[in-house]
Amino acid sequence: MDLTELKGEKGWKQYTAISLLENKLKELCVRLECPKLKILLLGGEKQWIYYDKSKLLKVSDECFQEMKALEVVSLRYADLSLKSLQFLTNVKTLELSDCELRDISFLAKLNKLEILSFRAQKRPQIFHQMTLSSMLL
Fold it and tell me: At the top level of its lineage, which domain of life is listed (predicted)?
């Protein structure tokens, strides 16, 4: 089954782990209420040969507001501002794989972050920004 749309339904409250990897979602602009969620694996359509930014899953800044218990987050093939992660005060592990990232300075707000993984990023200046941000801490 190809997932093409996700709505902010109330039925998500009881889950502690959700995997929505390699789906056909185009955007995630709803605020999902998942107060018990500890693990989230989220990703857009896998890109095999050519990097096509238009196929990335667009994640809104409000998406994670009701997921404060999250400890492990894996985002793949997504286009997002790291500002959206500022609500994840308990996140310990963050994987960003083949993502288009903006506003990397918000990583500094993740005080409990222990493991950070960037894989196959398309923008090398992200690492330069990370170095500058860590120097300011």
Answer: Eukaryota
